[in-house]
Amino acid sequence: MSDGTQRGTNTLTVNQVAALCGRSTQWVHHLAKAGFVQKQGKNEYALVAVIRGVIAYYEDLQSKNSKTAAASRATEARTREIELRIQERMRDLIPLEDARAVVSEVAALVRAEFQGLPARFTRDMQDRRKLVCQQLIPWLDQIALPLVIHSLGGGRDALPQGYLDGDTTVHYRNMPLLYTRESDAVVDLLEEITAPNPVKRLLKDYEPFKRMIYQNRGHKVREMFDRDHLPSREQPIRQKIKKNGFWMV
Question: For position 4, what pLDDT does the model report?
Fold first, then answer.
């Protein structure tokens, strides 16, 4: 085979490369400019170089698309996380109607269970009446109270702003946190209403009340913190109280 024949077989013009790849001549020039294909001569390309260059071009394109898709998924995930945080702060993670439906369903189940309890324990009507009038243990009261409030048409927004956990009431979980977080007015009122001897005799049986209110440990806990600059999280507050030996539940 002569050199001219071998050259003609292994070399393609720009039009031939475009026809082979099913693309335009402008695309072929772009491929060469990007460095995927080296020219053999003026507007001439080696067949092997063209094949390798086209493969490299599409592999590079696929890699870029994969990275773009991954970046897009990461952006979507971050956006969704931000949306969930905003919904959580606005207390809008669950649609209000769905939450009310669940509460109504639970309330109905609890009511049905309570109504059937006396009959399960005895057939004697006098004993049933005793069970019906039996005082519920505190944790059961805590479960039933929100359900009863809801069944009567109440809810979180039933009262004007400030009545619950504001100027009128304070919700607390344990005495050390109350003395740490609440205002002077709350602490003063607590100590005023627990001061009478008949009340004191009852409350002193509960160790946290005895230590915090009547033995002044509450004020010692209070002096450990600046209420204008309390930690935003509860954990460091608990840790500091425990470290100083004042934590009680």
Answer: 46
